[in-house]
């Protein structure tokens, strides 16, 4: 899955992963899990998810996304005025509560982002083929400090029944990818109608799981 795959999705508007509502696990759990001192959430591979508008109600949001179309559309579709400026290899789209850095996540330095309390991952890890997932987690690790918690939403289905994306990530995959981290399994969302955002999958079961992951201090 290279960058051109994703650019084509955005150019052709084939965005089956895009949700028309805030993710239920986010609206159900995020506020309960935050601390009064939490100030900043980072959203890698953010697309134009409405989850960022939800997160911005609680704290400063920084998203990262490959596609220029996604970044522009996020602001246009939410009727938010934005400013644009070039920051090295990245284009920055911003309004007071929210910054989107457009460019390749694997080239983004954690030094470019202020202290991060939360990382929100819905359809970022699972968007990547298994062979790229460890590379993603290893780079994500550079954005962690001792106070950072990752709000990770995974998806599970019989791997042989669907060619991703999305790619199924089981609990044992999470343990192996995040080896050396603290991993707390929080909740599961069984998707009875097998609908994943705008697509319906013909699989025997489909479920999402929420984990909170932090550095093992
Ligand atoms: C499955 S979509 C999920 C988007 C968003 N998290 C959501 O829930 O709607 C994956 C997104 O990752 C972006 N992406 C893929 N590879 C990337 C990379 N190397 N750097 C930054 N963004 C990337 C794609 O353009 C796409 O918008």
UniProtKB/TrEMBL annotation:
HAMAP family documented for this protein: Thiopur_methtran
Intracellular or extracellular location(s): Cytoplasm
Domain of life: Bacteria
Any one GO BP annotation for this protein: response to metal ion
Enzyme class: transferase
UniProt xrefs under InterPro entries: SAM-dependent_MTases_sf, Thiopur_S-MeTfrase_Se/Te_detox, Thiopurine_S-MeTrfase, TPMT
Sequence positions that bind S-adenosyl-L-methionine: 10, 45, 65, 122
Molecular functions (GO terms): thiopurine S-methyltransferase activity
Pfam families assigned: TPMT (PF05724)
Catalyzed chemical reaction(s): S-adenosyl-L-methionine + a thiopurine = S-adenosyl-L-homocysteine + a thiopurine S-methylether
Family in the record: Belongs to the class I-like SAM-binding methyltransferase superfamily. TPMT family.
Gene transcribed to yield this protein: tpm
Lineage: Bacteria, Pseudomonadati, Pseudomonadota, Gammaproteobacteria, Alteromonadales
PANTHER family given in the database record: THIOPURINE S-METHYLTRANSFERASE
Enzyme Commission identifier(s): 2.1.1.67
SUPFAM superfamilies: S-adenosyl-L-methionine-dependent methyltransferases
GO cellular component terms listed in the entry, alphabetical order: cytoplasm
Name assigned to this protein: Thiopurine S-methyltransferase
Organism (species): Cognaticolwellia beringensis
Keywords: Cytoplasm, Methyltransferase, S-adenosyl-L-methionine, Transferase
